[in-house]
Amino acid sequence: MTSPNENHFTSDVFAVETMNVPGGAETILRGGRHLFPLLPRAFAGVQQIGVLGWGPQGRAQARNLRDSLAGSGIRVVVGLRPGSASAADARAHGFTEENGTLGDWLTVAAESDLVLLLIADAALAAHHEKIFGALRPGATIGLSHGFLLGHLTTTGGDFSAGHGVIAVCPKGMGDSVRRLYEQGAHINGAGINSSFAVHADPDGNAVDRALAWSVALGSPWTFRTTLRGEYLSDIVGERAILLGAVHGLVESLFQRWRLAGDGPERAYERAPENITGPIAATISRSGLAAVREQLDPAGRDTFDRAYSAVYGPARDLVAEIYDEVADGTELRSVILAERRLSGRPMANIGGSPMWAAGAAVRARRAERKLPVDPFTAGAFVASMMAQIDEFASRDHPWSEIVNESVIEAVDSLLPYMHARDVAYMVDNCSRTARLGARRWGPRFQAAYEQIAFPAAEGPADPGLIASFTEHPVHTALAAAARLRPSVDISLA
C-alpha cells in the first residue's frame, strides 16, 4: 500500500524521528502537550476548524481540539444537520449557538478553513457532494476514515478540485480518544496513536496541518500511510481481529468449554474473559511472543496445537475480507444495509447464553488472578497473526500493521470489552464496524468450530510455530512499545 518513501515525511514545524522496523526505518512524530504551543504555526492559514458530526469521533475530537487550541485564536465549531438528536449533548459539552461554536453543518462547512467530515459513513456517502459544494475556496477537507475514498473510487467520483484532502485516523474508538487525552493532562503523552495521510496538497501545507491535528488530539505518536491504505487496513481490521473475529472466537470457545464440561462462568473465564484480560494485558505490555513464552511446556504444546489449527482458516477469511474491501463489495454492502434499515436501529447481538455469565465473572475478579488459557491464547494469537501476515503480504507499512492489528486491539478495544463485554462493544461501535462485525463474526465462528477446533486435536505444525517465534512482527512491536504511554486507559 505504500512505496518505500511514502511513509517518510519531514516537517517545517515539528521535530520528527525514525523508528527502526524490519526492512528499514519509518518516520514518526512523537506527540505530547509540550507541542501544543506549536499548533498555531502548524495550522497556518486556519482560523476555524469545522467538525461535522457528533458521533463517537466527532464528540471526542471536537473537545480535544478545542482544549488543545484554547487561547490560540483558532476556533473549533461543531456543525450538525437540522434537527440532529446530538445537538443537546453538544450543547451540554459547551458547543452552543450562543457562543458561536454550534451551527448548521453546511454553514459551518462554508465558514471553516479545515472541515473535518466525521459524520457516519453512509451519510457521508449520501451527502458529500452537498458538503463539497458548500466549501469555501481553498478549504482543507479532513477525514478520520478512508471510507469516502473507497466510495468515490467505486462510484467514479472524486474530491473537489482545489481543496487539500488530509486524514488523521486515531487507532481507537472515540471514547478512548477522549479518555486518554484527559489522562494526558497528568501524564504527558497519554493518548491514542494516529495515522495520517495526505491525499491532495494544493498549498503545500498539508503535512504540517495533519500533524497538528494529530498532536491536538493527543496522539502519543503519529505515522504516515495513504488514504487507500488506511481504509483497507481499518475496515478489514474491524471485520477481523478487532471486532468480527474476536466475537466469533469467543462464541466458539465458550461453546467448546461448555461441551467439555465447564459451567457457564468457568467457560466464560476461559473465553472472553481470558482474551480481554490476561492475554490482552500480556500482549500490550510484553508482546505477542510473550504469551507463548510464559507458558509451561504442557501449556506451550496446547498453544501450539491451537495456533497451528486456527492460523490457516483465519488467514483465508482475512484474505477474503481484504479482497471484498479492496474491490468495493464490502463498502457497497454497508450502503445497501443502511438503505434497508432506513434509520431503524439494529438488534443487539448480546442475547446468546454466554453473556449472561459475564456479570458474575466480573464481580469476582478481585478474588483471584486469572491465568492465561493456553488453547484460547493459541487461537487468539493465530487469528491476530493471520491479519498481520495478510497486511504484510499486501505491502502495508509496519507502523500500520502493528497499530491496526495489535495496538488498537490491546490498548483501546479489548479494555472496553473487558469492562463491558465483547457483545457490548459490537453493539456500540460505529455503524460501519457494527455491520461488518455482524456479517463476518458468524463466518469466523463457523470456521473455528467446523475446521480449526477439530484439527487442534492433532499435533502442532513445527514450521508454523517456527514462523511465529521468528516473525519480524516481534521486532516491530518492540520498537512500537518504546513509544507506548506509561498509562493504561482509564475505564472508571
TrEMBL record:
The text of the family note is:
Belongs to the ketol-acid reductoisomerase family.
Keyword list, A-Z: Amino-acid biosynthesis, Branched-chain amino acid biosynthesis, Magnesium, Metal-binding, Oxidoreductase
KARI N-terminal Rossmann domain location, by residue? Answer: 29-225
**Which cofactor(s) are needed, names only?**
Mg(2+)
Domain KARI C-terminal knotted positions: 226-368
Q: Where does Mg(2+) 1 bind?
A: D234, E238
Family matches, as PROSITE patterns: KARI_C, KARI_N
Q: Which Gene3D superfamilies match?
A: N-(1-d-carboxylethyl)-l-norvaline Dehydrogenase, domain 2, NAD(P)-binding Rossmann-like Domain
PANTHER family on file: KETOL-ACID REDUCTOISOMERASE, MITOCHONDRIAL
- One Pfam family assigned to this protein is KARI_N
State which pathway it belongs to.
Answer: Amino-acid biosynthesis; L-isoleucine biosynthesis; L-isoleucine from 2-oxobutanoate: step 2/4; Amino-acid biosynthesis; L-valine biosynthesis; L-valine from pyruvate: step 2/4
Q: Which residues form the signal peptide?
A: none
Q: Write down what this protein is called.
A: Acetohydroxy-acid isomeroreductase
> Where is Mg(2+) 2 bound in this sequence?
D234
